[in-house]
Amino acid sequence: MGDVNDDAVRVALDIAYRGQWGRIVATLIGFTGDWDLAEECAADAFTRALERWPRDGIPDRPGAWLTTTARHRALDRLRRAGVETTKLQEQAVTMPSDNDQPDDHDDRAVGSGIADDRLRLLFTCCHPALALDARVALTLRTLCGLTTVEIAHAFVVPEATMAKRLVRAKAKIRHAAIPYRVPPGHVLPERVSGVLAVVYLLFNEGYDATAGANLIREQLCDDAIRLATLLVELMPDEPETGGLLALLKFHHARRHARTTPTGDLVLLTDQDRDRWDHAAIVAAAAILDSALRRREPGTYQLQAAIAACHATAPTAADTDWPQIARLYHELYQRTPTPIVALNHAVAIAMADGPAAGLAHIDRHHLDDSLSSYHLLYATRADLHRRLGDWARAVADYEHAIALTTNDTERRYLTARLDETRPATS
After folding, report:
1. Alpha-carbon gap, residue 417 to 384, rounded angstroms
2. Which residues contact 108 (CB under 8 A, 6 or more apart)?
3. Which of 20, 68, 271, 308 is most solvent-facing, going by the fewest CB within 10 Å?
4. Which CATH number does 6-95 carry?
5. Which residues of the chain have pLDDT under 70?
6. Can you give the pLDDT at residue 154?
């Protein structure tokens, strides 16, 4: 081995980062009890790989190499800090060796025998002692390696606010001595909502990437679906886990049709439905039916039912928009957030016309609550364009473009703006 092409190394590291970051950090947190140290040592392992792999070659099991390197780095840091204790030595002995490191899809038993290291980390982050937004933010950072900017976008808050939230969440876990484990079965139901929220936002970041050249970060979507599947196995009597898994599968089934071969955005109404994964849609429908039979409807089941209306319509014209509007109304009664109100406005516009959609936006004062959300202005622009109010459409498209950080979405909105501008002349 040796003299490996730098591009090959970067590709291998990118795959390892997407597949192994959460597992490495989770292992180190369990080993050291120090969240910041775990992240720093995991990052250091990737840095060292970037230096060594071009010379030494890419290891057969990159995840094992990275985990071992990060573990050794953590041990060195702890020794230098003078905190090497009997307990630490015992933990080091029980750490897996290079040959014992799990494969990318190896679910190691902890407690229930089902959860892997990442699921243990999910439940630790989602302890009820933490505020819900802190649970989600911390897990997205430590489990998935999302940047503070990406997490801030998911919450529609400033980056500085999110950075402070992450610091406070880690301090809370440390000071409250929150246990690092999957909780016993009798307390699982009360812990599920925070975990489901984490998985949902993880999928959303993969489904509609905050920034960069690509609209979809497929690995994040796959990770979220895998974690949702584990949650269904762990809590088979909890209907909302099934609702979430169905929702994610419905959306992911459309991934190949969401962009053109050149990477441009294709709206749902314009997608080639032959490119949808119909086997996945059938599977999602079965999961949703199973959840709904328990007659305990929740927010994820309602969202999955909305996704099912889209996924099972033979053509865009066959979409049951009045039913979707009714489902969004019910969803808003349970989760009265500005994002749900905006989506409800879109459904109303499709069912009753663009003027009705705009009136719904005004009624909920979404210009105030979603002033930094580009999709609000993209929606307003589209509705104004459909009404022939070209000047307002242009202004809203320009506003949306200024707020957009994803290249694919920016290209789409710019194209719509260019189509609209001549009409103002």
Report:
1. 12
2. 102, 116, 117
3. 271
4. 1.10.1740
5. 1-4, 83-116, 154-156, 209-215, 425
6. 66
